[in-house]
Every structure is written in structure tokens, then in C-alpha cells.
Design a protein that fits this description.
- Pfam families: TPR_8.
- One of its GO terms (cellular component) is cytoplasm.
- The protein is built from 40 helices and five strands.
- It is mainly α.
- A three-stranded antiparallel β-sheet has the order 2-1-3.
- Strand 1 and strand 2 form a beta hairpin.
- Helix 24 packs antiparallel against helix 25.
- The longest helix has 21 residues.
- The radius of gyration is 35 Å and the shape is elongated.
- It starts with a helix and ends with a helix.
């Protein structure tokens, strides 16, 4: 029964479900607590449970981080490691999120409730915040009442009986939790789930993910066993919708976790599974649109067609009075809505369609974050009738899926790419412009993301900045103005509804993002003012350093270090400004800050000239190894580690590093290519070829180095079909810049040798093998369009044409081979060129003699070259006229005379 209650708490269900028959005989106090949590009043649970206790944690005068942690852990294990423990942890975490992420502030004093009448140390707040530091990354200084997060983290560690993430020694191996689908009790699995949520909240307080928290959260949310462990203990009469909701939020939170810890390339499988669970119909296509009422002509744009068909959103029935009110399209919030023309209005023959990868011949690209309908007839049936200007309301889960796809695209795509920006704008428009009432959290997040997008365009940057300023005030904890209309009643529940499925954005991050925008525009003063108000000294220093004011930056950092001597990040940034290894070592010593070790690794790999040092591979690898032991989820560090290993000849180390890279991002072509290079050096050619196949299957279609490596390794393995494929791609990639230099002649000669070694079919081309057809197309169709001066290439083409029993084409190739050489202007001054031309002339004359009297292209009765003798003499005569007076006494001249006399 407890598993059922906590399952509803996990999905944030409608509080009305607690009034059902299944909970009639349930403990009324627990039901009241669950109701308070679901209605957005978790602080009432905290107030009730702590207010009923007469004891409190003991606070000493000489309080330290360790003693505070020990005192809180003893207090929780004595009073809350029981039935109410999990509810208490959930209430604390939700109150923390309300205080720091969604607002408004909880109207209770936690210190008074927890410590009763004890006289508290003035440093208690700093000590509490320092407990949330991780991996040398300091938690945000102005975090509102950090005890609301510390207590549930400690309590959930006790409930799950797992190793603590507080003050983990980087030299000890940290054990990540394991959840079994069959043997883990449902309530324990739920405790693990809430612990992952709490750890992600802690990670969001840091400047970047660090420490053991990302690994623990990722291990909990990495396997569907977590949801299966919960659903197996639900009562038999439990609805399938509840179970499906649990699986859905698991996949959504898996994506959120990957985004939070910078492993966003792992998100696609979970997004696809969530889409199938909610039966979400989604497609991106093109349509003409007028973006403003003043625009006379519609222009091409992207539109998302989407429709929900799921009843899984258990919180959808909350009162609409708590949702943002209807907003007129002329308001300053929505501005003007784009008006799309009918998608089917554009004639099919006017649609420009590039050759793209499609699945099952449907014309729909499924293997990407946003499925794309290439042509209008490829739009799924259920979406064809949708009006792009008046699309139906989506369920909360489907809206969350769209926003998560937005974040994945943004983190995996090049910055300021126009097409990517259009895709993101289409997603945001689909979330904002839909019928019906709108969820506060989803709607405000969509408005925020739209504002960020508008600051990247010259025409809308001013409007975007003004909207960001308004949203910062609206989404802040202490509300000053209202941009988003919202009923005041029950507002907390609407703000917390989908908070665990969307990436955490603390309220100070909103202002910091605004400051970044100011900084990108050169508005330094406004950016620094925001950072100073937020007590973000490191960011303010980086602002000054970015504009060349290193001295001011140093002063700010030194002041920060004076006030916070344990700020490892500040030491590291000062080291970056001064390029001082001692400061990086100090940063590592006091906080195990991984960026300090990364900086040391790069310093010893490429020391500045002023240091007087030479490149030290061993030192660089040692520092990078220390960094990776502390934070093993950093793709960039693993990649650099592997590159250094390759360069210094440690190929086993490089193979391990690049294996970790492709595990973190299986679409990174260069990581696969470098992994293959490490395998080649270890003589593991089979593994190397497999890696290169993955590399060329990734985003590497224009990287000629990868295709060249693929060709060479395939040649060593005698995989000639792969060699041919690589040759074709190399020519296509390099032909515009390198011309015939894109042709690898020794490899092509080997391919031709293999081709002509067999007999050409006598009947027709249908008996040709795939290799033969591809090789013929490459040599006889592609190469002639690239060759300009290489007679050697033309002779290869002639060889294949003769094998195809097309002597007339072979003779034409011999003629082109001769012309390629004879047109060289150096023929009159360079004897080597003269002799090469004589050789080509001899070959052409031999070709005339051997091919001229064969059956021609028009069948019996026709000849390849009826007047081959005349053409032979004319060719010799023309060449002798070029060499007369300059090469009369040369060996080449004598050879020409001899050939002429033989005809």
C-alpha cells in the first residue's frame, strides 16, 4: 500500500486520488502529509513532523563541517529512519526546490523548528553551504536555507543504506548503487529514485557537474530496472495508466539526468521510448508562414505538428484556475503569432528535397531527436488534418518531451547554426501556441527559452533581453512584477508539477544567463553588476579577463579567496589568469577541483615559452588521470587524454581513453577514428576496421582523413568493397579542392587489377557482382570527370573498358591519356617531359594497332578505327614537329622514327 501512495507522489498525481476507496483504511496522518506534498505545501509536513519533536541536533560552539554532518545524521537516524522518514525527505526536498527554483518562499523558519531554542553559530549557514560543495566546485553562496537539501540527502542515504556522497575521498573507490528489477523492494527503489532527484538538485547548485553525485544519480536513473522494481510491488488492481506514468517519468528523468551531467548524446533512446509510451505523434515539416501582420508574402519555415493521444498525465485534472490565464496574441508576452499557410498548398514538384536517410521508405527520418517529414505526403496520417495555426493542447508529459528535445538539440548542435535555431523556434512555438490552459512551469520555461533564442538575432535581440529581464523578475523567488498571468490560489502545486522532469534552473541562474547575454553584447557594466549582486565573484572576474582587464580580474579573485579560502575554483581561475601551476596545485589540494588538473595537464603538454619547460608527456598524463579519477564522465578530458597517449606512443592507454569517449558519445566520429588508430598500432586490424565503420556512419561525411584511414585499414584487411567505398567518398570530398589529386592511384590500380582478373559476363550486366558494378561505375564514370593531366589514370580507365569488351572506349581513353601528356608546355625544355610524351605516343600507336581493326560500337561490319594507320602517322608527325630542332639527337626522337617506320 505504501508503494502505491509513494508512486502517486513520484508522478505528482491529482490529490483527489487520495480520496479513493483504496486509501479508506490508510493512516490519516500519512494521507494528510501526501496531500500537502501533492498540493504544493510540503513545508506543512516539515512543520508538523519537526514541531512534534522535543529534541534537536546538538550544536557545539566549535562547530565544524564534520561535526555538523555527524550531528544531523545521528538526529535523523534516531527519529526519522522509520515510516515517516521517506515522506519527511520528500517534503524537505520539495520545500528546497520551492525556495530556490520555483518560489514562493516557504513561510516557516527551519532553523527554529530544527534546533529549537539553541543559540546557533553565525557560521552555520556557511558550513551548511560548504557541505553541498562537490569535486572542488563550491555550491552557490546565496542558496536559500541549504539544510532543506542536506537533510533529505542524509536521510535518503540512511534509508537506502548507501555510501555517503558527502566528503568523498577521491583516492577511495566509490560504489554506485545497484537496483534490481526483481529483488529490490518497491519502497527502497522509490527511495533511490528520490535520492537521484535530490542529487540532481545538488548538482544544479554547482557551476558544473563534479564529484560523485553525477555518477550516483546516473547509475540510479540509467536502467529501467528502477521503474520495474516499483511496479512489481503495486497492488494487482493498480491501473495500467499509473504504471505507464511511472515508466514515462523514468525515461524523462533519465534524459534530464543526462543533460545535467553532460552526457546528452545518450538521450535519444530514452526520448524514443517515452514517445512510444505516451503514444505521442510528432513530426517536423516545412510550411510557408507570415511572421508579422505587416508581412505581405509568406516565406518558408519549419513547423512542428504534434498531437497527444495519452491519458497518462495523472496531474492533468488539477483545477484550471491554477494555470496561466488565456493571453491575447497581441499581448507583450506572446507578441505576434506566425500564420502558416496550408501545408498541402505547395505543389509537390516545387518542394525541394535533398537525398536523406529514410526509414522503411516512408520518407520520415526517425533516427534523430526531431522526426522529419521530407515531403508533405510523408506526414503521418493522424497529423495530416491538423491546422498548423490552431493545434490541439498537448499533455504535460508530451510538452516536457518537446522541451527536453529542445535541450538535447541545443547541447549537441553547433552554436548559432541558423537551421538549428529554426528547429528550436519551431519547438517553442508548438509549446506556447496551443489551445487550452497552460501549465505554469512548462509555459514559463518555453517563454524563457524563446527569449534566449531571440537574443541571438539582430532584429529581436532588444526584445529578447527585455523579455528575459521581465521573466527573471517573474520566475524569481521574491516576486516583484507579474509577466505570466496566474491565479494565486494553489500556485505552488502548479509550479512543482513537472519540476523533476525538466532541467533544474535555479533562480540565480536566470540572472546569470541574462548577465552572459549582456557580456556577449559588450555591456560589461550591467553584466558585472548582476554578478556582484549575486555574489558570483568568479564570473565577474572572468568578465574582466575576457575584455583584457586581467588586473581587475585578479583583484576580484584575490578578494574572493580572502573571504572564502576553501574556494578551489577561485584558485584555479587565478591560475588560468596567471598561468601559475602552483595555484592549480593549490586548487587540487584544497578541493580536488578537476579543472585545475585539466589546466595542469594542458600546461605540461604545451608549456608557455616563458616557463623554460619542454613538453612533458608523463606529467600531462598524470594530471589528466587524476582529473578523470575524480570525475570520469568528462568527454573532453578523456579525448585529450587519449590524444596525448597516441602522441607519446602509449597505445593501450589511448585505446582505453577513446573507448570511454565513444561510450559517452557513440556519435563522435573522431573518437572512433582515434580509437581505430590505437588499435592499428596494436595490430588489432579487425577492431580498427570496426571502429572506422562506426566513424564513417557517424557525422563524418566530409572528413577525408577518416575515409582515408578507413581505406588504408580495409586494404590491409583485403576488404576491397570497403576500399572501393572509401575511394569513392574521398574523390567526392576532395575533388573540388584537389582535383585529380583526390585519386589514390596505387589503390585504384589494385582495384582495377582485382576487377580485370575475372572474366566479364558474356550475356549482360545482370550477372555482375556488386563489387564489379560499383568498381565499373567508379572507374568509368566518376574518375573521367576528375582526371585532367594524369595519363596513368586514363590508362586504368582504358584497361577496364577493354575488359568490358568496349575497345572503342578503351581507344578513346588512350587518346585522352596521350593528350594529357602532350599538352604539357614543358615538352620543349624538359627532356623528362619529352621522353614521357614519347612513351605515351608509343602506347597510343600500339593501341591503334591492336584495337583499330576490332569490331566497333555499331556491331558487325563496323571497326573501332578504320584509319588507324593514318592517325598513328599523324600523331607521330605532330609530336616530331614539336621536338624538331630541340630533341633531334635524343633517344626519344630515334624511337619515334623507329615507330613511324614500322607502320
Amino acid at each position: 500500500m505504501e508503494v502505491l501512495l509513494h508512486s502517486y507522489l513520484l508522478i505528482g498525481a491529482d490529490p483527489a486520488v487520495l480520496n479513493g476507496k483504496v486509501f479508506e483504511e490508510y493512516d490519516s496522518r500519512e494521507l494528510a502529509f501526501a496531500h500537502n506534498i501533492l498540493t504544493g505545501h510540503p513545508y506543512k509536513v516539515v512543520e508538523s513532523l519537526l514541531g512534534s519533536l522535543e529534541v534537536s541536533p546538538t550544536m557545539n560552539d566549535d562547530l565544524t563541517e564534520e561535526r555538523l554532518l555527524h550531528s544531523l545524521r545521528d538526529f535523523l537516524s534516531s527519529h526519522f529512519n522509520s515510516r515517516f522518514g521517506l515522506l519527511f525527505a520528500i517534503a524537505l526536498l520539495q520545500t528546497f526546490i520551492q525556495n530556490n527554483f520555483t518560489g514562493p518562499l516557504a513561510p516557516i523558519d527551519l532553523n527554529k523548528l530544527l534546533f529549537k531554542d539553541q543559540i546557533l553559530s553565525k557560521d552555520l549557514g556557511k558550513l551548511a553551504i560548504s557541505l553541498l560543495n562537490a569535486g572542488g566546485q563550491p555550491a552557490y553562496d546565496l542558496t536559500e536555507n541549504p539544510l532543506y537539501l542536506i537533510l533529505p540527502l542524509l536521510l535518503l542515504e540512511l534509508l537506502t543504506k548507501q555510501q555517503s556522497c558527502f566528503a568523498v575521498d577521491s583516492d577511495t573507490e566509490f560504489e554506485v548503487p545497484e537496483v534490481s528489477a526483481t529483488s529490490t523492494p518497491g519502497l527502497l527503489a522509490i527511495s533511490h529514485w528520490w535520492r537521484a532527484r535530490a542529487l540532481l538538485a545538488q548538482v544544479s547548485l554547482l557551476h558544473e557537474p563534479a564529484g560523485s553525485q553525477p555518477a550516483v544519480a546516473s547509475s540510479i536513473l540509467s536502467s529501467i530496472d528502477l521503474a520495474q522494481a516499483v511496479t512489481k510491488d503495486l497492488p494487482q488492481e493498480t491501473s495500467q495508466d499509473l504504471k505507464a506514468s511511472l515508466y514515462t517519468i523514468f525515461y524523462l528523468e533519465n534524459v534530464k539526468c543526462s543533460l545535467a551531467i553532460n552526457t546528452e548524446h545518450l538521450c535519444l533512446p530514452s526520448l524514443i521510448k517515452a514517445k512510444k509510451l505516451t503514444n505521442f505523434s510528432l513530426i517536423m515539416t516545412g510550411a510557408r508562414a507570415k511572421r508579422t501582420k505587416f508581412q505581405q508574402k509568406a516565406h518558408a519555415g519549419l513547423v512542428i505538428l504534434a498531437q497527444s493521444s495519452s491519458n497518462l498525465d495523472a496531474s492533468k485534472d488539477l483545477k484550471d484556475s491554477a494555470n496561466p490565464d488565456y493571453i491575447a496574441l497581441e499581448s507583450e508576452i506572446l507578441l505576434e503569432k506566425p500564420h502558416f499557410e496550408d501545408i498541402a498548398a505547395e505543389p509537390l514538384d516545387e518542394q525541394i528535397v535533398k537525398k536523406q536517410k529514410v526509414v522503411d521508405g516512408t520518407g520520415v527520418e526517425e533516427d534523430r531527436i526531431l522526426p522529419v517529414a521530407i515531403r508533405q505526403e510523408n506526414i503521418p496520417t493522424e497529423l495530416k488534418d491538423l491546422d498548423p495555426n490552431n493545434q490541439p493542447q498537448l499533455s504535460g508529459y508530451d510538452n516536457v518531451q518537446l522541451l527536453l528535445r529542445l535541450y538535447v538539440i541545443r547541447q549537441t548542435s553547433p552554436a548559432k547554426d541558423p537551421l538549428v535555431e529554426e528547429e528550436l523556434a519551431a519547438i517553442i512555438s508548438r509549446v506556447i501556441y496551443q489551445q487550452g490552459s497552460k501549465d505554469w512551469t512548462i509555459f514559463s520555461r518555453a517563454l524563457w527559452e524563446r527569449s534566449i533564442g531571440e537574443t541571438t538575432k539582430a532584429k529581436t535581440i532588444e526584445r529578447g533581453l527585455l523579455q528575459m529581464q521581465s521573466l527573471v523578475e517573474e520566475l524569481g523567488i521574491k516576486l516583484q512584477t507579474r509577466l505570466i498571468p496566474n491565479a494565486p490560489n494553489d500556485e505552488q502545486s502548479t509550479r512543482l508539477r513537472y519540476i523533476h522532469q525538466l532541467p533544474f534552473i535555479p533562480h540565480w541562474d536566470l540572472e546569470a544567463t541574462l548577465a552572459e547575454k549582456y557580456m556577449s553584447l559588450g555591456v560589461l557594466k550591467s553584466a558585472v553588476e548582476i554578478y556582484e549582486r549575486l555574489h558570483m565573484a568568479c564570473e565577474a572576474a572572468l568578465c574582466y579577463a575576457a575584455v583584457g582587464e586581467e588586473k581587475i580580474a585578479e583583484e576580484i579573485i584575490l578578494q574572493r579567496i580572502a573571504n572564502n579560502p576553501k574556494d578551489a575554483r577561485a584558485y584555479s581561475i587565478l591560475g588560468d589568469i596567471r598561468q601559475d601551476p602552483q595555484l592549480w596545485k593549490k586548487s587540487w589540494e584544497i578541493g580536488k577541483y578537476v579543472n585545475a588538473k585539466n589546466s595542469l595537464g594542458r600546461y605540461f603538454y604545451n608549456p608557455p615559452p616563458s616557463s623554460g619547460l619542454t613538453r612533458d608527456y608523463a606529467a600531462a598524463l598524470t594530471h589528466l588521470n587524476d582529473s578523470l579519477r575524480q570525475y570520469p564522465l568528462s568527454f573532453e578530458t578523456w579525448y585529450f587524454y587519449g590524444c596525448v597517449g597516441l602522441e607519446c606512443g602509449k597505445f593501450e592507454l589511448a585505446a582505453e581513453a577513446f573507448s570511454r569517449c565513444v561510450a559517452l558519445d557513440s556519435t563522435h566520429a573522431m573518437a572512433w577514428s582515434n580509437l581505430s588508430a590505437a588499435f592499428v598500432e596494436q595490430n588489432k586490424l579487425k577492431e580498427a576496421l570496426s571502429c572506422l565503420k562506426r566513424a564513417v556512419a557517424s557525422d563524418s561525411q566530409s572528413n577525408w582523413r577518416i575515409w582515408e584511414n578507413y581505406m588504408l585499414v580495409a586494404a590491409k584487411m583485403n576488404e576491397w568493397s570497403d576500399v572501393l567505398l572509401a575511394c569513392r567518398h574521398l574523390v567526392n570530398i576532395k575533388r573540388d579542392k584537389a582535383g585529380e589529386g583526390s585519386i589514390d592511384l596505387p589503390v585504384v590500380e589494385k582495384l582495377v587489377e582485382l576487377l580485370v582478373r575475372t572474366d566479364y559476363p558474356a550475356d549482360n550486366d545482370q550477372k555482375l557482382t556488386h563489387f564489379q558494378r560499383s568498381c565499373i561505375e567508379f572507374v568509368c564514370d566518376i574518375l573521367p570527370s576528375v582526371i585532367t593531366t594524369s595519363s596513368r589514370c586514363w590508362r586504368l580507365v582504358a584497361k577496364v573498358e577493354l575488359w568490358r569488351k568496349r575497345p572503342w572506349s578503351a581507344l578513346e581513353c588512350h587518346e585522352k591519356a596521350y593528350r594529357a601528356v602532350s599538352h604539357n608546355p614543358d615538352i620543349e625544355i624538359d627532356e623528362k617531359v619529352w621522353n614521357a610524351t614519347v612513351d605515351a605516343c608509343e602506347d597510343l600507336v600500339a593501341a591503334y594497332e591492336s584495337l583499330g581493326e576490332l569490331e566497333g560500337r555499331h556491331g558487325p561490319g563496323s571497326l573501332v578505327c578504320k584509319d588507324w594507320k593514318y592517325k598513328s602517322r599523324a600523331t607521330i608527325k605532330a609530336l616530331m614537329s614539336k621536338g624538331k630542332g630541340r630533341w633531334d639527337d635524343s633517344d626519344g626522337w630515334e624511337r619515334l622514327v623507329a615507330v613511324r617506320n614500322q607502320i
